[in-house]
Amino acid sequence: MQFPKIWLLRHGQTEWNAEHRIQGQLESPLSPLGVEHARRQAVLMAPVMAQTPACYASPLGRAQQTADIALGGAPFLTDPRLAEAYAGVFQGMTLEEVAEQYPLVYGGNPRNLDLFCEAPGGEGYDSFHARILDFMQSLTGPSVVVAHGLLGQVMRGIVCGLSRDRMAALPNGQGCVYVLENGRETVLE
Question: What is the model's pTM?
Answer without folding.
Answer: 0.97
